[in-house]
Here is the input.
Amino acid sequence: MKLDHKHLLVRAEVNNCPSEGELSLVLSWMKKLINTIDMKLLQGPNISYIDQPGNRGITCMALIETSHIVLHIWDEADPGIFQLDVYSCKSFDIGTVINCLSSSFEVKKIEYKFLDRNTGLTFIK
Here is the structure.
C-alpha cells in the first residue's frame, strides 16, 4: 500500500487576530478544520498562550490519525500572523483548508506552499 505524504504550509495575515482570551475560538476552529478536511482526531487539540514579548501568541496542535495539524498565531503583530502546518498521509484538498481559514478569520493576505513528499525528494547515499 502506498501512502500519500502531503504537507501544506500556510502563512496568513489577519485583521481579527484571536488573542489570549479567545483560546476556545481557536480550539473550535481547529476541530472544524479537522472535520472539514475529513480527518480523524487522535489526540487534542491542545492549546497554549505564550506571553513572551516578541513571540506573544497562541499555539494549537492536534494529532490526527494520519499525522498532525499545528497552528501558530502571533497576536502582537498588526495585522496578526498565522502559520498553519497540515501534514497527512491521507489526501486533503488545499482549497478547503484555505477556505476554512479565510471564512473564519478576516484574512488580509495568504500564501502557501504545498509539498508532495512522495515526489521530488533528493536521496543521499
About this structure: The chain has one domain: 17-109.
